[in-house]
Amino acid sequence: MSKTSDGTFTHVRGELAWTIAMNRKPSEAIAMTEHLHAADHGRFKLLGLTDDCEIALFWDHVFRRVVEAGFDADGVDDLRDPETDEFERYEGRRDYIRQADLKAWDLVHPRHQWLLRHAARDGVR
After folding, report:
1. Reduced 3-state DSSP string for the chain
2. Tens digits of per-residue pLDDT, 18-58?
3. Farthest CA pair distance, the chain
4. pTM surpassing 0.85?
5. Residue 39 and residue 93: Cα distance in Å, rounded?
6. What tens digit of pLDDT does each residue of 87-118 get?
7. CB atoms < 10 A from the CB of 58, how many?
């Protein structure tokens, strides 16, 4: 498998770009993918895409919660709490993934797809 200079597999960006292109403007999919990839570091890890690829969900390692952002070819919006009634914290990403309605997501980031297999095995959504 080929790798990018930062050590991540190129198929991850390809899967993101393909999914975005299928739901949004194909001509802007690469730029959107690069902006998501740039935001996916350190404190925040990209979990996946929802709402016809209009919203990106990130895991916040510091506060152990999920944050969301809109994104387009110009960049990723400020990360914010999801539109929910309360501020939710989780034990970890696995805890959140087990509770999320993943079938409603447009894409689960490839780094987390192993959790889908565990959720399916455990009978979780």
Report:
1. CCECCCCCEHHHHHHHHHHHHHHCCHHHHHHHHHHHHHHCECCEEEEEEECCCCEEEEEECCCCEEEEEEEECCEECCCECCCCCCCCCCCCHHHHHHHCCHHHCCEECHHHHHHHHHHHHCCCC
2. 999 999 999 999 999 999 999 999 999 999 999 999 999 99
3. 43
4. no
5. 17
6. 567 778 878 877 888 888 999 998 877 766 65
7. 22
Q: Tokens 């999914």 — which residue?
A: 19
Tens of pLDDT along 48-93? 999 999 999 999 998 888 999 999 999 999 988 876 544 567 778 8
The single residue listed with the structure tokens 């991540």 is 8
The residues with which 9 forms a beta bridge, in sequence order, are 3
